[in-house]
Amino acid sequence: MIQPNIPESAQPRVVIVGGGFGGINLAKQLKHAPVQVVLLDRNNYHLFQPLLYQVSTAGLEPDSIAFPLRGIFSKQKNLVFRMAEVTGVRTADNILETGIGEIRYDYLVFATGSNTNFFGNKAIEQHAIGMKSLIEAVQIRNYVVKQFEESLLLKDPEEIKPKLNFIMVGGGPTGVELAGAFAELRKYIMPKDYPTLPQSLMEVYLIEAGPRVLASFSEKTSEHTMKALQDVGVKVLVNTGVKEYDGNTAILSTGEKIQSQSLLWSAGVKGVPVAGLPQDIILPNGRILVNEFNQLKGFNNIFAIGDIAQMTNDPRFPKGYPMVAQVAIQQGKNLAHNLRLMMENKTMKGFYYKDLGSMATIGRNRAVAEIFNTRLSGYIAWMVWMVVHLMSLLGFRNKLVVFINWFYRYFTFDRGTRIIIKRGAANIVKLRQTVGS
Amino acid sequence: MIQPNIPESAQPRVVIVGGGFGGINLAKQLKHAPVQVVLLDRNNYHLFQPLLYQVSTAGLEPDSIAFPLRGIFSKQKNLVFRMAEVTGVRTADNILETGIGEIRYDYLVFATGSNTNFFGNKAIEQHAIGMKSLIEAVQIRNYVVKQFEESLLLKDPEEIKPKLNFIMVGGGPTGVELAGAFAELRKYIMPKDYPTLPQSLMEVYLIEAGPRVLASFSEKTSEHTMKALQDVGVKVLVNTGVKEYDGNTAILSTGEKIQSQSLLWSAGVKGVPVAGLPQDIILPNGRILVNEFNQLKGFNNIFAIGDIAQMTNDPRFPKGYPMVAQVAIQQGKNLAHNLRLMMENKTMKGFYYKDLGSMATIGRNRAVAEIFNTRLSGYIAWMVWMVVHLMSLLGFRNKLVVFINWFYRYFTFDRGTRIIIKRGAANIVKLRQTVGS
């Protein structure tokens, strides 16, 4: 019989749902706390989401940006990891319901992150491509390479264009970085791999509903980014929304139509709260309302951190903090501290977000960064971007492999991983069923 | 409309089916020949099969042992690559039938390799796991890690054992290397990642129908290998076959039963010839009978090389050459030479196989090799094995990434890529359908 088999401990149990930036930083900080930490995640790895776009554009191996959670915590004796899908919570009984059985908690922390938000547009949701998970990124890579291979089999430019037009929706860092990477595919890989396909048949669009890209940055940086994207050949459309998309044609709010079989949606994210929480603390964007201690309203021992949590008491961020890694990391660390204080019956410390700055890369030698009240762009920003991301990657092996891939790509203009891993062999059907298709 | 869109050329067209060791070596040697080369493969990459077992045991990323075919041939102007599945041949019309349309040929070369051979045992075929393709290797990795995760959820040792018993069938190099790698998983990874699972619950079996493992090596090497495998804890059973397997229990020819949900089959390979060839030149093992020039009997302009070809005129190998990379490489090169001779109306040169030796690794610091009439084992053989495999890998990036993974693993006893890449998100359904599930 399947059961969580979590050893009973005399110490209070902190159950953390989610092994993203928030969850692992909280868990790490509890290493020497007098608690039993139970970490749950549906995957067995921590995903370094900021580099996901490089996997989908054949720049990095999927394994390079994923780090096994058991590896991270192999030396943390007070932590138990279980790979499990959380299905609900019974707060009256302090019980979490999961795919591997019920798990009792003393303290419960939701660090479940966010999902792609299509804002209720079912047609777009059905046909657009999200990019939040590793398998999505790998499948985008497969799909993109396949679009090129299939374009070679067509003669009519009108049939080829929808295959080679790529639309990114959403002008935030993900959209900007994706658009830049696609522009590089066109510039460096297309002429080498597909010399018979005219480059004029491929277009990269970046569509943003607001008046500027990278809206969370300064206006100056937005302008600079917009210009840099146009320089590398991206068609940037601001003040423009996507009204309809059927998998072949996108109809914009301006009435313009773009033929494209690939619409990558990074225009929004939303929380996906677990069943069993009171509806009045769940906001329309799916985030859970928390106080300055990351506590859910009405609960003493249930918390939410990172993307899933919305904290509105900071006057700088009246609509809640941005859904970025830094907030999750800092909230994880602060909550670890607060849990200790709470158990010692001391007053907890309200969360204060220290904005370490943000950055986005546009492509080879080009990035923008706003750190320590300084605005950087171009080559310097690009170097800073690379160093920061390399340092943040978990694990020596991943750092080294990513560094080599970047180094190699810089000097060869090549992308090493543009392979299509197809399924198909008959005798893997069994595996597919078990591993979960 | 989909069509192959292969440009017409005044030069004769050589169509090569398969981008494995045989196909790419033939294609490369034809770089300066007065021919148009059309290379077809169902995948867009060349797979370095000798290291496939390391992908399935979480030692290497799948991308490290795959190299995009377009990358290999980006500078070969007389070559056209198309990703296509070949479905048949109409020899009377010199037409190859493929999933992307009909392709005319002047010379046709089958270099399609081999598939797993279950020797007609349907029950075993249904439940066993083959290991010939990249996706199979990735799925084995996912599956193995999942077996460990699920074992944690069980309390009864009798329920756990079938999950942690791994059976390799076939004592050739693949079976030996797999068994060695699984033994290392038990020795180094299991205590670190799953300290609560007693190692005694995991067994690794290597089952060989003949009297010794590595039958193609000398008896001395076989003995040495057998001892080395036993040293690392593999249960080696020779003179033993698998009679039945239902996905949970393997019944051996000795009557012994082994509980296991994982039976990896590397006990044989077979050719899968294309439809349309005369039946009398297709052998029971699926290989195509060729003469010393790799020509199919009855055809002047159709050839087969590598695993799919059976050449029986070498008295050293009355049953045909072994199905190994070296034969394919050498036949590819020889055929390139012969095609030139043929077009100049000169006499072709019969193939002569130069055995460069063979090797197999058993694990950390242990390998066996027989090269230049010298028998090596232990640390030296292991170093030779690594150097030879690194040098043979295509591409600087792959060499470097594989080297780093090995280097890292050697000093940390860690395996970096033990992650489970699951499918599941709703909005990738469309992608899955197109990319081919």
TrEMBL record, chains A, B:
SUPFAM superfamilies: FAD/NAD(P)-binding domain (SSF51905). Residues 356-411 form the External alternative NADH-ubiquinone oxidoreductase-like C-terminal domain. Keywords: FAD, Flavoprotein, Membrane, NAD, Oxidoreductase, Transit peptide, Transmembrane, Transmembrane helix. Its EC number is 1.6.5.9. Residues 13-332 form the FAD/NAD(P)-binding domain. The chain crosses the membrane at residues 376-396. GO terms for molecular function: NADH dehydrogenase (quinone) (non-electrogenic) activity. It comes from the Bacteria. It catalyses: a quinone + NADH + H(+) = a quinol + NAD(+). Belongs to the NADH dehydrogenase family. PANTHER family: EXTERNAL NADH-UBIQUINONE OXIDOREDUCTASE 1, MITOCHONDRIAL-RELATED, NADH DEHYDROGENASE. This is NADH:ubiquinone reductase (non-electrogenic). It comes from Chitinophaga flava. The lineage of its organism: Bacteria, Pseudomonadati, Bacteroidota, Chitinophagia, Chitinophagales.
